[in-house]
Amino acid sequence: MLRSIKNIITVFAVTLIALLCSCVSRSDHLTVLVSDGPRPESFNNDDEFLDYIQKVHLGYMWDGAESNSGLAPERIHLDEIGTQSDSSIVTTGGSGFGIAGLIVGIDRGFISREEGVRRLARIVDFLGKADRYHGVWSHWIDGKTGKTKPFGKKDNGGDIVESSFLMSGLLIVREYFKDGNEAEKALAADIDSLWRDMDFQWYTKGGEDVIYWHWSPDYGWEMNFPLEGYNECMITYILAASSPTHPVSSEVYHKGWARSGDIISADKAYGLPMVLRHNGAEVAGGPLFWAHYSWIGLDPRGLKDKYGDYWVLNRSHALANYRYCQDNPKGYKGYGPSCWGLTASYSPSGYSAHFPQNDLGVITPTAALSSFPYTPEESMAALKGFYEKGDWIWGKYGFYDAFSEPADWTMPRYLAIDQLTITPMIENYRTGLLWSLFMGAPEIREGIRKLGFTYLPVGSNAS
Questions:
Q1: What is the pLDDT of residues 309-339, one digit of tens each?
Q2: Which pLDDT does position 233 carry in this prediction?
Q3: Beta strands in 156-241 (DSSP E)
Q4: What stretch of H or E contains 305?
Q5: Of 54, 77, 85, 210, which residue is the least packed, with the fewest Cβ within 10 Å?
Q6: Which pairs from 115-121 meet CB under 8 Å and 24+ separation?
Q7: Can you say whether the dihedral through the CA atoms of 54, 56, 59, 64 is positive or negative?
């Protein structure tokens, strides 16, 4: 009898161990990027510092991901953990930035290649089953079900801009893994299928010379938001022209986005050429996310068309924002060389698009940190200044979304669209990795040629 009991216990133990091992082998959540311990007080050098900053902010996409889809929650409120009612709602565009960040994490060894592929495969599988509208995802998706979560009453269908941010990240993944092992090639092929499903032609509303942001199966084109430059939406036109299955004509770009040439600006801000007319923000440029969202993969270095030089455009935008904060015409406490950056974020009175013409005394760390490629010295000064402020503006996933010294305000809250551009854009400053991958896609190279761009990659003699 005793021997039988021992045999049963042994079999049970072996089975339990096997099950546990099986669970571990299937899990893609083995590496933990975010430590619960105190943050380092200092670093040996700037490279070590940037490694840490990239890793912690990527934690939002890795450790903080929605559990079923693997995608980025729209927001994470540390003061509402366990009670946040929308914790399963994922954001399409923010997830695109986070997906690009995962490639950084894999390439830098923050995440193992195998873990990264498993997570990305789960994401792509989810996206393939989620609601789509002529191949285009909605702004928000329920991460548990894949069903659309309306962003607004009539915004309950396809969002071509947010989906473009998402596809930009996915194409970076495709290019990174397309020549890899069997699982990696399968991942790349699945992404290619999603890419080919996106019907950019549909979003010209029956063949107009402009792309429309939204379409709903219930409300059709009632949102009526044509994409006319310049703002954060340029990547949509690049992808639309590059589509291998449903491309738009070059006239859609030139007449719609570029407004038949009316996009060009001769204005200067703080002595800097603005290059293009910033919609509704002519004094010193719009919120700085305009220099980030479309440029996670799209490389502005050496990129020109008949309307402007896109490196000059983005560098001028970031520097004008910096110089405005130094000028500080409203006399806000805290503004200075190590504390600058205006972009859309939370504020004491709710969400607001901060820029020089809407300066509420709120600094948003992503504004300066995601501008590293354009303003490396100024961004490094801001990074060190923010870090020195201590835990007042720092939490589990890095710097909080925003803070205001004049109002003595911050909240332990994060937004995906702010948090998840930091790691990719710092990487583009450090190595140009994501720019190289995206611009290496053959469709993208063909698309920009079709639109009349020239592109001289850094270190290359070929346009």
A1: 999 999 999 999 999 999 999 999 999 999 9
A2: 98
A3: 158-159, 214-215
A4: strand 303-305
A5: 85
A6: 115/28, 115/30, 115/31, 116/28, 117/177, 117/183, 117/184, 117/187, 118/28, 119/28, 119/29, 119/62, 119/65, 119/70, 120/70, 120/173, 120/187, 121/183, 121/186, 121/187, 121/190
A7: negative
Identity (one letter) of the amino acid at 345? S
In which element (H, E) is residue 272 found?
strand 272-273
Consecutive H or E run containing 250: helix 250-251
Cα distances (angstroms) measured from residue 139 to each of 91, 96, 460: 6, 12, 37
Question: Residue 211 is encoded by which pair of tokens?
Answer: 């792309």
| Contact status, residue 373 vs residue 428, Cβ threshold 8 Å | yes
Distance (Å, whole) CA 211 – CA 310 = 21
**Distance separating alpha carbons of residues 434 and 363, to the nearest angstrom:** 27
- pLDDT, one tens digit per residue, over 210-229 is 999 999 999 999 999 999 99
The pLDDT of residue 7 is: 42
First-last CA distance in the chain: 81
Percent of the chain at pLDDT exceeding 70: 92
Tokens coding 225: 């938001």
| Of the candidate ranges 11-20, 38-47, 118-127, 209-218, the one whose mean pLDDT is the lowest | 11-20
CB-based contact 109:439 (threshold 8 Å): no
Instruction: State whether residue 100 is helix, strand or coil.
Output: helix
